[in-house]
Specification:
flat
Length: 46
């Protein structure tokens, strides 16, 4: 088993999907922050 961290750049993604769709995604996350997007991860890795 192996683990890894990856990332993606937000600016190019916004350019691909458009600001309107991006705003819709932000609104969905804000609305569902305590349900669909909730996490039980509570420790911070420095």
């Amino acid at each position: 088993m192996s683990w890894g961290l990856v990332s993606w750049l937000l600016t190019p993604m916004i350019g691909k999907i458009g600001m309107e769709k991006f705003q819709g995604m932000r609104q969905r996350v804000a609305k569902e922050i305590k349900t669909s997007f909730a996490s039980s991860n509570v420790q911070e890795i420095s």
